């Protein structure tokens, strides 16, 4: 079997894992839709490639996801975009608090945290999830591997059981696009 075919078959198997979590995905769509209808916001975070995905998904939702749909901006805020705050927090406190610090500054009752993590063990992700729980703010996590510590710290979770960060992130990006597209449809009804 050639390498491309092998990789595509692996990805197809992972998409089946997503389909098997349809009920949880539906619950996440309802959660986000309800929050946005109440003028609440979604805060999104991740490290490395997951940080890029968080930023990408935020841009899609703030600007627009579908080129034929002109609508108001929806508040989804990436917590790791501000390099000045990230470096100041890392220097003055600890890198483990970069998301928590931003979260603490802007959180309100009814908001949502959406965390992206291929391992589920990133300390800065765990810290923001713990802080959200303490403040009774709902948490949604897209995770990989076995879910790590984040699995138990998340109210809603989608798990991609694979050890390849690239495959996990591809599934997370698909999930983000799918969920946000469904939320957009519900908000525009």
Overall description:
There is one protein chain. The protein is α/β, with parallel strands linked by helices and 189 residues long. It has one domain (3-187): Glucose-6-phosphate isomerase like protein, domain 1 (Rossmann fold), CATH 3.40.50. Helices cover 56% and strands 14% of the residues. The protein has helices at residues 3-19, 22-37, 49-62, 83-92, 98-106, 123-134, 150-153, 165-187; strands spanning 42-46, 76-78, 112-117, 138-144, 156-160. Strands 2-1-3-4-5 form a five-stranded parallel beta sheet, with helices on both faces. Helix 7 (150-153) links the parallel strand 4 (138-144) and strand 5 (156-160). Helix 2 (22-37) crosses helix 8 (165-187). It is globular, with a radius of gyration of 16 Å.
Key terms:
189 residues; alpha/beta; Rossmann fold; 5-stranded parallel β-sheet; 8 helices; 56% helix; globular
The proportion of strand residues reads: 5-15%
Please tell me what the overall shape is: globular
**What is the CATH H-level superfamily?**
Glucose-6-phosphate isomerase like protein, domain 1
Q: Give the tally of structural domains.
A: 1
How would you spell out the order of helices and strands? HHEHEHHEHEHEH
The pLDDT mean sits at 95
Strand order of the largest sheet: 2-1-3-4-5
The assembly state of the depicted protein chains is: single chain
Fill in the CATH topology: Rossmann fold
CATH second-level architecture: 3-Layer(aba) Sandwich
Low-pLDDT runs of 5+ residues are: none
Number of strands: 5
Give the helix level as a range of percent. Answer: 55-70%
Main sheet: strands, sense, barrel = 5 strands, parallel
Rg calculated over all Cα atoms: 16 Å
Please report the first level of CATH classification, the CATH class: Alpha Beta
Question: What is the helix tally?
Answer: 8
- Span between N and C termini? 46 Å
Structural class: alpha/beta
């Amino acid at each position: 079997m050639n390498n491309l075919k092998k990789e595509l078959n692996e990805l197809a198997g992972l998409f089946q894992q997503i389909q098997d979590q349809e009920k949880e995905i539906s619950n996440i769509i309802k959660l986000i839709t309800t929050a946005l209808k109440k003028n609440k916001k979604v805060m999104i975070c991740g490290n490395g490639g997951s940080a890029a995905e968080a930023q990408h998904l935020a841009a899609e939702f703030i600007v627009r996801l579908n080129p034929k749909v002109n609508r108001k901006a929806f508040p989804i805020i990436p917590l790791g975009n501000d390099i000045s705050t990230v470096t100041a927090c890392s220097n003055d406190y600890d890198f483990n608090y970069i998301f928590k610090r931003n979260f603490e500054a802007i959180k309100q009752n009814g908001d949502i945290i959406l965390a992206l993590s291929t391992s589920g063990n990133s300390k800065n992700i765990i810290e923001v999830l713990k802080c959200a729980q303490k403040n009774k703010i709902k948490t949604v996590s897209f995770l990989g591997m076995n879910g790590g510590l984040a699995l138990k710290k998340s109210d809603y979770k989608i798990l991609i059981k694979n050890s390849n960060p690239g495959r996990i992130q591809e599934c997370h990006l698909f999930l983000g696009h799918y969920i946000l597209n469904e939320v957009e449809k519900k908000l525009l009804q």
